[in-house]
């Protein structure tokens, strides 16, 4: 169990982390989501005793990281994949870590296998690794001692789509076996797919937290009908405000149950009724971090600036 209680970190007159409190439970993946500079890395560094808190506490299993004997054996940590020793081979990095923690050397081969680094790649110096390979090596290193807790800062950075898929499955399996996972990301869709619990941080403060289902429930409803005009009328009568989303469909802030009831009461046949999709959570993320997001403060780009973005496409 990870427990963060009224944790703050001040650098000069800048409050990088501002009185945050959260818990990560065994058997769950907790996503720590926030824009650049929100305070994610500072929090994870305080959890792993690399940065001293200004106030509050951060404990793992009831203890500060620095008070845990042989902490690597109980807590797997990956904070900066690019910080590995460039002159050593991947295998050497893992072998030294295994020796330091008093582990059997066969764990090195098991972990190389687990993270998909081939024997040939394991013989290469880390300085010649791609960022994705460094992430895989860092994940191997964090899992070496089969710890109960994993703390990962932006582990998906540099991984290709297949690598991201692999990592999701790995972390899911790890949590399903009772492990506690805390991972950070500034990418909403990454967190959305992988996490059971989500903590959103902006400008050092937690702006939302809860289960993914709870936060998604706040993302409203998408609804489609054979007769969209009748549907719009029925929802309006029920006091539900809608926004046209497709030719025959609407988005609304209301819950799916309320939308379904309103349509049924008016005898309107629906062809689709579901929680608001990813865009809904994206809106939520942007709303929650609005004002905390540096992009919200930046002037809008001049017309014609940058590539054209297709409707529905990813920027
Ligand atoms: N050692 C330090 N000295 C001064 N300010 C710092 C220091 N470390 C972090 N900060 C500041 O604290 C704030 C939070 O930084 P942090 O690295 O925790 O953000 P983050 O959410 O991890 O961002 P990113 O997604 O860009 O990695 C930033 O404004 C950063 O400039």
TrEMBL record:
GO molecular function, one term: ATP binding
Domain ABC transporter: 2-228
UniProt entry keywords in alphabetical sequence: ATP-binding, Nucleotide-binding, Transport
Keyword Nucleotide-binding: yes
InterPro entries with a match to the protein in the record: AAA+_ATPase, ABC_transporter-like_ATP-bd, ABC_transporter-like_CS, P-loop_NTPase
Highest taxon of the lineage: Bacteria
Keyword Protein biosynthesis attributed: no
Family: Belongs to the ABC transporter superfamily.
This protein's name: ATP-binding cassette domain-containing protein
Organism: Mumia zhuanghuii
Top-level taxonomy: Bacteria, Bacillati, Actinomycetota, Actinomycetes, Propionibacteriales
């Amino acid at each position: 169990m990870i427990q963060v209680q009224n944790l703050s970190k001040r650098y000069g007159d800048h409050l990088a982390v501002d009185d945050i409190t959260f818990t990560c439970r065994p058997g769950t993946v907790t996503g720590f989501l926030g824009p650049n500079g929100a305070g994610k890395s500072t929090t994870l560094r305080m959890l792993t005793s690399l940065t001293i808190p200004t106030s509050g506490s951060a404990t793992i299993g009831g203890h500060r990281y620095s008070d845990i004997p042989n902490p690597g054996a109980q807590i797997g940590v990956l904070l900066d994949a690019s910080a590995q020793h460039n002159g050593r081979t991947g295998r050497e990095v893992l072998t030294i870590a295994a020796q330091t923690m008093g582990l059997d050397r066969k764990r090195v081969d098991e972990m190389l296998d687990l993270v998909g680094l081939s024997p040939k790649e394991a013989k290469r110096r880390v300085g010649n690794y791609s960022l994705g390979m460094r992430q895989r090596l860092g994940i191997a290193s964090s899992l070496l001692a089969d710890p109960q807790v994993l703390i990962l800062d932006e582990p998906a950075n540099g991984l290709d789509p297949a690598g991201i898929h692999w990592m999701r499955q790995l972390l899911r399996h790890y949590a399903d076996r009772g492990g506690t996972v805390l991972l950070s990301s500034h990418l909403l869709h990454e967190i959305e797919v992988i996490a059971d619990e989500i903590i959103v941080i902006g400008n050092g403060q937690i702006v939302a937290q809860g289960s993914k289902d709870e936060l998604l429930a706040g993302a409203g409803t998408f609804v489609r009908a054979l007769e969209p005009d009748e549907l719009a009328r029925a929802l309006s009568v029920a006091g539900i405000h809608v926004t046209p989303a497709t030719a025959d469909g609407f988005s609304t802030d209301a819950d799916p149950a309320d939308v379904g009831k309103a349509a049924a009461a008016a005898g309107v046949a629906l062809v689709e009724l579901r929680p608001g999709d990813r865009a809904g959570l994206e809106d939520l993320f942007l709303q929650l971090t609005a004002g905390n997001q540096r992009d919200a403060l930046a002037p809008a780009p001049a017309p014609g600036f940058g590539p054209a973005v297709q409707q529905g496409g990813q920027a």
